[in-house]
Design a protein that fits this description.
Elements lengths: L11 H11 L7 E5 L2 E5 L4 H17 L4 E5 L2 E4 L8 E3 L3 E5 L11 E3 L5 E5 L4 H14 L4 E6 L4 E9 L2 E9 L4 E3 L5 E3 L6
Parallel strand pairs: 4-7, 8-9
Antiparallel strand pairs: 1-2, 3-6, 4-5, 6-8, 9-10, 10-11, 12-13
Pfam family, one: Uma2
InterPro entries: Nuclease_put_TT1808 (IPR012296), Restrct_endonuc-II-like (IPR011335), Uma2 (IPR008538)
Protein name: Putative restriction endonuclease domain-containing protein
């Protein structure tokens, strides 16, 4: 009698990840895998994109270090043991231009080298305020900038450690928000009003 090798049975998380990666969404919709749940979001409204544009313009013009900016770039973030990695699509991913992180990157790239991610709240702000913040902290992304439309404030989370960021700096719309190195400028939010 001969022994036959068998493929290991896929786990629930393997099946979830495989299903997520095969998911097709309508044009303009985004699918993300966040803390073991699939989230599908509709295309953003004009105000959402306006806030991103205001951040983008200042980062490109005023940063102490030349930056690259990618809107809606897929990132794979580490997760707690036993769960599939988060697959998120930040509204903006920013990295030092010298690293050229986006050139040749796969659709879902690791977050190594990313200097800051930006999210603008949408119809389900809890995801941006909590779940994504925890994922970005776990991945060690140094800065997370949250433009919170409901609260009319911009929040900068910095110094990731474990599941969260150690520092939080909030500026209401209309007040400047200091961005540390490698940006090293005050983000002006007067146009956010």
């Amino acid at each position: 009698m001969t022994a036959m090798a068998h493929e290991p049975m896929p786990t629930q998380d393997d099946i979830l990840l495989e299903g997520f990666l095969a998911l097709e969404t309508p044009t303009g919709f985004r699918a993300e895998l966040i803390e073991g749940e699939i989230a599908v979001t509709p295309p953003p409204d004009g105000d959402h994109e306006d806030y991103l544009s205001l951040v983008f313009e200042q980062v490109m013009r005023m940063s102490a270090t030349a930056m690259q900016f990618s809107g809606h770039k897929g990132l794979v973030l580490s997760h707690a043991a036993g769960q599939p990695a988060d697959h998120v699509i930040p509204d903006a991913t920013i990295a030092p231009r010298a690293l050229r992180l986006f050139r040749g990157a796969p659709p879902w790239m690791p977050s190594d080298g990313v200097a800051m991610v930006v999210e603008v709240t949408s119809s389900k702000p809890h995801k941006d305020r909590v779940a994504k913040r925890h994922g970005y902290a776990r991945a060690g992304i140094p800065l997370y900038l949250l433009v919170d439309r409901d609260k009319s404030a911009v929040t900068l989370f910095s110094e990731p450690e474990g599941e969260d960021y150690l520092n939080t700096h909030i500026a209401p719309f209309g007040k400047p928000l200091p961005l540390p190195a490698p940006f090293s400028f005050d983000l002006e939010t007067a146009d956010f009003l």
